[in-house]
Here is the input.
Amino acid sequence: MSAKDIYHDSVRNALEKESWHITNDPFILRWGARDLYIDLGAQKLIAAEKRGHKIAVEVKSFIGASPVTDLEKALGQYILYYDILSRLEPDRRLYLAIRQQTYSELFQEPIGKILIENQRLCLLVFDSELEVIIEWIP
Here is the structure.
């Protein structure tokens, strides 16, 4: 099992502040003979709809020497998790959790914007100090 991202607890706390129930920490995907570990699984019950929304969240710090290298690695991991999750739990939506600073510095540039415009990934943008969710994309 891989080590938790340094912002793992911040994202967990932010989700709990928004009344998400953490169901898995980590969320284990079993595919063939391999186990993969998404940081968090969560569920939010919506009383008016009588059904729950389920998510899986992969937390990434983007604190390496190269933000582009961090993006490439995170994107590869996201795609692998997305493809397996879509087969095992198609009703669960996968999010990549990133700090507000990372969103501003990388995803507001053309290299990040193209991923959002092409709907390649869903982002959960959070404030690591306040431990709150700033934005869900899309």
